[in-house]
Amino acid sequence: MTVRFYMIDRINEICPEQYIEAVKCVSMSEDVFNEHFPGFPVFPGSLILEGMAQMGGLFIEFCLRRRGLKEKRAALTMVNRMKYREMVRPGDRLDYRGTVKVFYPDDGYAVLMVEAKCGEKLCAEGELMFGFLDVMDEKMKHANDALMELAFTNVKIVE
Amino acid sequence: MDVETKLRELLLPVLGLSSIDQIQPDHALVNDLGAESIDFVEILYAIETNFGVKISIQEISMVEYGAKDVQEGVLTEGLAEMLNKDFDTERFKAGQTAREIFETFTVRELATVVSRKMQEQKSS
Predict the structure, then answer these.
(1) Nearest to B38 among A77, A104, A107 (CB)
(2) Is the Cα dihedral B37, B54, B6, A77 positive or negative?
(3) ipTM
């Protein structure tokens, strides 16, 4: 059985090579709250980062595919100035947004400014860098196609 | 601070080193300092954000030079001479491959590329 570790629930909107918006709904039934922390549930900053990195990676690969670079993977290579500003609690809906700072398909990297908001409240922000890797084999290609279809079906694409 | 010294400081976190003395100007990024291909994207980005100039991977990987004058995958006399002149050195020789040059590309040579780009930008 394949276990996936999705840290975003839905991608709402993308504007290729410009921005992406996604949502993560934080539920009290998530395993992480058993230990983080008993009697005082706080959604870990590391998982907010993971969600924004998943969103960013999918977005970059989507943009690469549109340029005909279907066999590149976006790998998180650097996390810059990630700042956590507010605690995230069960019941919160996190709106993630990633905005392209640079996107260089020829040089093999991109940088996104990312932020996580709960309503008007800024909970986390930072900068993520992705390097592009040629690591696709047939099995990975197949799994990646399925993931991209799952992630981007019914997503609003702003041109 | 000159470009070379600032560049050595920028390379510290990318290469996971702690002292600037570990990065000498004549160290080769790949062969001496262990830079991997994925490190180069960080290096290029650090250069862009700190020096305000965009350098492409082709400029560092010698593809640009290589495309100009490589016969059967090795440097010709003419290209070696041009590289020696551009980088004020005598280390480039006919017969070297573009890969060899990339693997022996030094911190000082990278600083030269950055300085040249900065000057080009200023004069334009």
Answers:
(1) A77
(2) negative
(3) 0.75
Distance from CA of B57 to the nearest CA of A (A): 5
Query: Which whole number is the average pLDDT over A10-34?
Result: 97
Task: Name the residue of chain A whose CA is nearest to B41's CA.
Answer: A109
Q: Architecture of B3-117 per CATH?
A: Orthogonal Bundle (1.10)
> Which residue, among A81, A107, A135, would best test binding to B if mutated, counting the most B CBs under 10 Å from its CB?
A107
DSSP secondary structure letters along chain B: --HHHHHHHHHHHHHT---GGGS-TT-BTTTTT---HHHHHHHHHHHHHHHS----HHHHHTHHHHHHSEETTEE-HHHHHHHHHHTT-S---TT-BHHHHHHT-BHHHHHHHHHHHHHHHHH-
Which chain B residue has the Cα nearest residue A104?
A: B56
Active site residues of A: 36
A83-96 per-position pLDDT tens digit: 999 999 999 999 99
